[in-house]
Amino acid sequence: MHRFGIIWLAFVLVLTGCSSGASEPQADTKKKLSEAEEKEEMTIDTFVASQDAKGMLTDGPGKYGGDRYDLAKVKAEIDQFPDDLTAEEYFNRLVFLVAEDYRPIMKTIDEFDTDINFREVEAPKGPQEAKLQERNVVILLDASGSMKEKVDGGVKMDLAKRAVTRFASQLPEGTNVSLQVYGHKGSNQEKDKPLSCEGIEEVYPLAQYDQSKFAKSLNSFQAAGWTPLAASMKAAKKTLEQEASSDAVNVVYVVSDGEETCGGNPAQAAQELQQSNMKAVVNIIGFDVDDAGARALKEVARSGGGEYVTVNTEEQLQQYWTREQLRLYKAWRKWGWDTRGSMMRSFNDKMDEARKTICCSSSGELAVTYKQEEARLREAKNYLVETHDLPARIAVDLNSFIYQRWSSIFKHGKKRFEEKAEEIRRNKDHLEKEINAIRDMNLEKYDPGS
Predict the structure, then answer these.
(1) How far apart are CA 162 and CA 225, in angstroms?
(2) What percent of the chain has pLDDT over 90?
(3) How does DSSP classify residue 198?
(4) Which residues contact 124 (CB under 8 A, 6 or more apart)?
(5) Which strands make up the sheet holding 200-208, listed edge to edge?
(6) What is the 3-state secondary structure (H, E, C) of 332-372?
(7) Beta bridge partners of 204
(8) How far is CA 177 from CA 112, 237, 438, in A?
(9) Does 211 share its domain with 254?
């Protein structure tokens, strides 16, 4: 008996749940229908115009608002107005007939994009750039047999290593550096040519500069063999393709004392490197190079979108890095001026766009729409006063209601403009701080007096 009672109770609960689930949607539907019917039943006799701007801007269009406007039909409706209404009741009827639909405009205002998109000035071609993106520097160091020769100041290989160390240690914080050496295997004898021409090695994998590890990598090789310049640039391209992000800034510096001796085409390799997705700039430092070698290396730099410079001593090599430092200092100072100028022009354009879209411009969509509504309200009001022989005080009150409606909408539009304008100004201030920070960081790094 007890078990039967539990089963029966469960059965009743299931039926009750089913019944409740079925009846609720019907109630919702009935409620929705009643709301729709209530809206449909809203007539010129029952409509009350909103007193606040939010309501005015979200009520939707009048019976003859927007493209449906027909003055003859409006006048026909006015002809049916009773003669004993108050000014407010007359105004409600006029708004019911000719109000504009501000909802699309308000949606545009609410969704107005306050971001400042400006043309970024191209960053100086060096190991740093404009947007704090990934920065990669690849140093290709010639270790062919001729680098064992002596010049003023010592052995070319030793001098080049010291200059490369100084350069790498002065790279901006966050820059990745790769040191790749070529020609250091075998010898410069014919029998060792295949080994030497294939002897390209990344002794310091692409990463941020570490003094002890970088020094260790430089001590891991000596000058020995041939000059596979083209193959070394292909290796650099492969490194960047595997390790660098797609939007990284990539710069290649080649330190060499002569032209290609392994049968490759270094100018073509430099061009491919520059025109690849990596868009790497190839700069060549010719160290104690003869005329033929200088011409060849100059063509390589031109094909790689970079520059060529000849140095013959350690002092000149160090002077090159100093000149490069001064060039980048001046370039970053100019970048700061130009980028801020570009951003400020875009800021002013964005503020003008906000005025036209939201408020305060006679050609703005909100102003044009209300001018149209106001003209139609006054046209309808004038006809009403003339045909119904209304007292002067009614006409005065109607003018006042029309003005108050315009004033409320205008003030709301101005308030929304100020809110959006403040967002734009905040974005401008943020961008200005970023630009100044990037400029100052690079000026400090490349300050020739430091």
Answers:
(1) 21
(2) 52
(3) T
(4) 327, 328, 331, 332, 335
(5) 200-208, 176-182, 135-142, 249-256, 281-287, 305-311
(6) HHHHHHHHHHHHHHHHHHHHHHHHHHCCCCCCCHHHHHHHH
(7) 179
(8) 43, 14, 20
(9) yes
* Phi, psi (degrees; rounded to nearest 5) at 144: -70, 170
**Structure-token match 């060849």, residue found:** 296
- Terminal Cα-to-Cα distance of the chain (whole angstroms): 99
CA 97 from centre of chain: 46
pLDDT in tens, the chain (450 residues): 333 232 222 323 333 333 333 333 344 444 443 433 443 457 899 999 999 999 999 888 999 999 999 999 999 999 999 999 999 999 999 999 999 999 999 999 999 999 988 766 666 655 444 344 578 899 999 999 999 988 887 888 998 888 888 888 877 777 899 999 999 999 989 999 999 999 899 999 999 999 999 999 999 999 999 999 999 999 999 999 888 877 788 899 999 888 899 999 999 999 999 998 888 889 888 888 888 888 889 999 999 998 888 777 767 777 777 777 788 888 888 888 998 999 999 999 999 999 888 877 777 888 889 999 999 999 999 999 999 989 999 999 999 999 999 999 999 999 999 999 999 999 999 999 998 988 888 888 777 776
Contacts 24+ apart (CB under 8 A), 347-356: 347/116, 347/118, 347/424, 347/428, 350/114, 350/116, 350/424, 351/421, 351/424, 354/112, 354/114, 354/417, 354/420, 354/421, 354/424, 355/417
Predicted TM-score (pTM) of the model is 0.56
Q: Spell out where 167-276 has E strands.
A: 176-182, 200-208, 249-256
**Amino acid (1-letter code) at residue 366:** L
Question: Which of residues 328, 347, 382 is at a domain's end?
Answer: 328
Other beta carbons within 10 angstroms of residue 374's beta carbon come to 17
Position 6 in a domain: no
**Both 300 and 245 in a single domain?**
yes
The stretches of 42-86 forming alpha helices (DSSP H) are 53-58, 71-79
Q: Are residues 223 and 370 in the same domain?
A: no
Q: Name the region of 218 (left: φ>0; alpha: ψ -120 to 50; beta: rest).
A: alpha
Domain extent, residue 407, equals 48-112+358-450
**Which of 427, 423, 431, 441 shows the shortest CA–CA distance to 110?**
423
The DSSP result for 115-143, as a single string, is -----PPPPPSSS--TT---EEEEEEEE-
CA distance 64 to 43: 13
d(CA 54, CA 274): 57
| DSSP-assigned letters across all residues of 289-304 | --HHHHHHHHHHHHHT
